Amino acid sequence: xxVRSSALAGCLAVIVGGAFVPCASAAPARLFERTVQIxxxxxxxxxxxxxxxxxxxxxxxxxxxxxxxxxxxxxxxNVVPQVFKVxxxxxxxxxxxxxxxxxxxxxxxxxxxxxxxxxxxSHNYRVLVYxxxxxxxxxxxxxxxxxxxxxxxxxxxxxxxxxxxxxxPPAAVRMRGINCTVMVSTTLFPNINGTxxxxxxxxxxxxxxxxxxxxxxxxxxxxxxxxxxxxxxTVSGSTLTSGPTSRPYQYLSTGRTVYIGHPYRIxxxxxxxxxxxxxxxxxxxxxxxP
Length: 290
Description:
The protein has strands spanning about 1-10, 15, 20, 30-40, 45-55, 55-70, 75-85, 90-95, 100-105, 110-120, 125-135, 140-145, 165-170, 170-175, 180-185, 185-190, 190, 195-205, 215-225, 230-235, 240-245, 250-255, 265-275, 275-285. Residues about 1-30 have low confidence and may be disordered. It folds into two domains: about 1-145, no CATH class; about 165-285, Immunoglobulin-like (Sandwich). Strands 1-4-5-6-10 form a five-stranded antiparallel β-sheet, with no helix packed on it. By secondary structure, the chain is an all-beta fold.
């Protein structure tokens, strides 16, 4: 386990988990960083937070990441900032609403997420980062890192509650002239560790023995507002691709943080190339959101 903390004075720039953290003028600031080994696998999870003061305006910058030495496995990451305040008559740690970050499961290595938000000088903050890795041999391992915790390291877990889940039905489009179908999987909106998450996926299914090289792409889109109402924009970092491959079946799935009140839809595109000619089909989900 690696733990680093420092009180920063003057205008300094630091690199934390591969991300650039800008300086915070001449006001005092503090940086915490911790890396924890995930038990039983060659993987680790890191958490960091940086509280800065610029002209009396406090900002909490935070993030985390997970990686495996051999790069293998499907990785899930959840970054959860918390604030210490009175609740139910006692001092407790609370998730900061809308501040959580989620990504996965994805084969990306390393997998990192980070953000920032306004902070209050009189409040205490900490950042918990939960990482889960599904190894190629089926082993499932997880760990939680806390950037600024002292003593016992708290733990998080991912649970899919029975309530607060919204979904839309799958949609399928048949390719013209080829025995292949592009399908959008059912999309879920659970609340995971205080973070509103969209879990989505898609597939390309061809008849057994169908020739050609197959490719699959999934992406999430968010609806615009104001003059852009009715238009959809691809969410940055939401796209996954697979192929080319001769296998008759491909499936991709992942998840990411979403915002309550925003409309989302999933786009799945499949293509098959035979003798230099490519046939493409795209399936869209209906619009839904948390």
